[in-house]
Amino acid sequence: MTILDEVIELCIELTGQPLSDKEQEPKKYLRDCDPFNQGDLGYSQFNELLLTLGYDRVTKDFFKWIFGDEAVIKSFDDLEQGVDKFRKTAMFLYGHIKYAFKHLSQMEQSAIEKELQQIKPLSKSHYQKRHEPLHDLHKISSDKAYYLGYIIKCQGDRRDATVSCRNRRDL
Question: In angstroms, what CA-CA distances link 88 with 2, 14, 84, 139?
Fold first, then answer.
């Protein structure tokens, strides 16, 4: 597999879309092309690559978010890491790579940051500022913990009105 084939494979992973039969033809325009033969792969070159393969272009802010603020992809490894970063974030946010690419790749920086707020870890102070719980926690010994599955099942059954757990003797 050539470096170009690997780059195309990463573009497929980034967009969440395989190349259609119709897009197979543009690959011949790239056949002798090594995207990293002149060093870096810039924003406009990356968009040119995506367009040649039949994919949508990305905004400069999206490019910077994925590949770093320098606005260039320095190596194949940087491309691979950026695609991996995007795919992980896409799965956390939406559970769907293609949708995430279509949605996020057209956003400006402020909109991307707003989307990412959903998956940012909460600060320690968030938990420290909570009110005291209404109910105390009760320790359940490990030899009794398996009973919890029965209790939860019975509560679910009760909602379905199929079983009354109060009469169950195995609890």
Answer: 26, 11, 6, 36
